[in-house]
Amino acid sequence: MKMQKAREQIVAYGNRMIADRLTLGTSGNLSIYDPAEGLMAISPSGVAYADTKPEDIVIMDLDGNIVEGDKKPSSEHELHSVFYRNKKDVCAVVHAHSMYCTTLACMGKPLQSVHYALAEALTDTIPMVPYYTYGTQALADGVAEAIKGSESRGVLLANHGMIACSETMQSAYGLALTMEWCAEVEWRALAAGGMNVLTAEQMAEVMEKYKTYGQVREDGSRPRGYNG
């Protein structure tokens, strides 16, 4: 099978999404991109994560053509392709309907830097994409517009959910966890009466410090923040 390791990672992290309560049921989706082959492995549509096997993962090109797999791919495959077309160093995308990110998205409130941990997303404010019906080209186009010229590794989808992306599935998933934690902090601060939002300059300083945070991994990378 093509992209065997990517298939196994998607199965493993799909089960983690449920265990970590980043999503429920069959909602959300994950993908990994191989730029050398120009192929994307993506979770199948409507299959419970606990029931998903590596052979169920669908292999596609970025034009939406199925290269390998007998399952219907996630309805959001075009949304995933947008990140791989527009962010050349991104090779993994996590889309989830996590409670607090989705709550902010339904409130129309952007995810702001109420805590410095959001620097993991390489931004001080997570962009908000206007509402479009799920699985549509309009939604994919809205995401493309939101990330155009932006360094942000995350977006909120109005009345829908969140997306995190990075070089690897490990770091994309770690960012999804960080975004959800920061969203809960923001929601609690709003509920308590207000927020103290860090400035762009303060966040830029944290982003710089994150470049030397933690231990160097076997692949030469470093964690970008506490989860990533």
How would you sum up this structure, described in words?
This protein is an alpha+beta fold and about 230 residues long. The chain has a single domain (about 5-210), classed as 3-Layer(aba) Sandwich (L-fuculose-1-phosphate Aldolase), CATH 3.40.225.10. Helix content is about 35%, strand content about 15%. It is built from 6 helices and 10 strands. The strands form 2 sheets. Strands 4-3-2-1-5-10-9-8 form an 8-stranded mixed β-sheet, sandwiched between helices. It has a two-stranded antiparallel sheet with strand order 6-7. Strand 8, helix 4 and strand 9 (about 155) form a beta-alpha-beta unit. The longest helix is centred in the last third of the chain and has 24 residues, at about 170-190. The radius of gyration is 17 Å and the shape is globular.
| CATH 2nd-level architecture | 3-Layer(aba) Sandwich
The topology string of helices and strands comes to HEEEEHEHEEEHEEHH
Q: Give a short account of the largest sheet.
A: 8 strands, mixed
Globular, elongated, flat, extended or rod-shaped: what is the shape? globular
Number of helices: 6
Total number of beta strands: 10
* CATH superfamily heading: Class II aldolase/adducin N-terminal domain
Secondary-structure content class: alpha+beta
Strand order of the main beta sheet, please? 4-3-2-1-5-10-9-8
Classified by CATH, the class is Alpha Beta
State the CATH topology: L-fuculose-1-phosphate Aldolase
Kindly, what is the distance between the CA atoms of the first and last residues, rounded to a whole number of angstroms?
A: 29 Å
Look at the structure and give the mean pLDDT. 94
Tell me roughly what share of residues is in helical segments.
25-40%
Count of distinct structural domains: 1
Bin the strand percentage. Answer: 15-25%
